[in-house]
Amino acid sequence: MRPDDFFSHIENQFNNSLPFVAYRKPNDSVAKALLQNTDNLYTTQDFKESGFVFAPFDNSQQTVLIPLEGSEFLTCEIEDETNNTSSQNNAEVNDDDKESHLKLVQNGIESIQESHLKKVVLSRCESIQFSETKSISVFNRLVQNYPKAFVYCWYHPKVGLWLGATPETLLSVSGNRFKTMALAGTQPYKDSTDVNWKDKEREEQQFVTDYIEDRLKSSVSSISISEPKTIKAGNLLHLQSNISGILDTELNYVLKKLHPTPAVCGLPVKEAKTFILENESYDREFYTGFLGELNLMETTSRNTNSRNVENNAYSSVKTVSNMFVNLRCMQVKNNQALIYVGGGITKDSNPEFEWEETVSKAETMKRVLIS
User: Fold this and answer.
1) Could you tell me where the DSSP H helices lie in the chain?
2) 287 dihedral zone (left: phi>0; alpha: psi -120 to 50; beta)
3) For 166-211, what is each residue's pLDDT tens digit?
4) Structural domain of residue 210, as residue ranges?
5) Distance CA 262, CA 230 (A)
6) Rounded Cα–Cα distance for residues 185 and 187 (Å)
């Protein structure tokens, strides 16, 4: 499908108040969309359906499903427009918002010092005037500006409208093989990925790596973990370790083991989640939840030469799921873009530095908002 037709279909779906998701996976030239035929609200508990899921941060709440059955599935080859321009949305942050976040972070540091909490991820919500009629254009701009991220536009008239460009994979499964990552630590990108990391960031990233390994060890027959490396995500740098192996259990069980990870919640997870729900001054909803393809069928072949018919007989069809953590995202509501940003707090955190980190993270969404 041509790009103009692809975006026109999405726009019509949105104008008709029907659920849809449009997305492009990292380093992929193909954008996809699921357009639901009705406005019914579907949910999943066992993750055995096929479609696209949107899960909240609070895993006691329901996960929304756009089912493959009963939806139109679109694909489109994305043209590289090398669009790295950004609109000017340099809205000043309210001083009260900054003071409130500084107090929240200080409260988190003191709680870590006084209890067995090791880390807690604390966040805030920043609002900018924005018309929802520009949302599809913003999705297109996300696609052009963040080729290495999972970018999406998700809408359900009974739930809301969300857009994002997240750098973090929660879980990718093909057949019984899985991939995930431990992503933590943040610093601004300044023309090079050859940077030094402080002990605070390295410790934070190791917390996440150790947690994921511990949570998965009873569900896998093998596991491999890479050394941490610096990766670029938009205008930021992070520390990332890749984790892969073979699963021995069902997808639902693994998702319950992983979500929420220490990268979006803290450690110990149960205590950190309680602290977040009791101390953050707003409802995260789907921010730091997860989203992605669920149980789609994908054909793979050992042979990349389409003219070699004999070897093409070795192609196979596998069930594939690709889930991403909902970071660098915003919700469009009441003519406002609600931008969600946060950071991991440890005993060594500095409230002012943590505030500046959220300011940097907010730029991922701000730079694609159209004035």
Assistant:
1) 3-15, 95-114, 135-145, 199-216, 251-258, 269-279, 309-312, 351-366
2) beta
3) 999 999 999 999 999 999 888 999 889 999 999 989 988 998 999 9
4) 3-83+93-299+315-366
5) 19
6) 7
| Domain assignment present for 307 | no
Degrees to nearest 5, angle at CA 273 with 184 and 179: 40
Which tops the pLDDT comparison, 302 or 61?
Answer: 61
Please name the residue that has the structure tokens 């994921």.
212
Report d(CA 281, CA 105) in Å as an integer. 12
* φ/ψ of residue 349, rounded to 5: -70, 150
Number of C-beta neighbours around residue 29 at 10 A: 12
How far apart (Å, rounded) are the C-alpha atoms in residues 184 and 325?
Answer: 12
Please name the residue that has the structure tokens 């390994």: 213
- Alpha carbons 201 and 186: distance in angstroms, whole number: 7
What total number of domains does the chain contain?
1
- pTM for the full predicted model: 0.90
- Please tell me what DSSP assigns to residue 323: E
By the 10 Å C-beta count (0-12 exposed, 13-18 middle, 19+ buried), 196 is classed as: exposed
Res 86: pLDDT: 44
Token output for 329: 């995202």
- Domain CATH number, residue 42: 3.60.120.10
**169-174 and 336-345: which strand pairing?**
unpaired
Ramachandran bin of 193, using left for φ above 0, alpha for ψ from -120 to 50, beta for the remaining angles: alpha
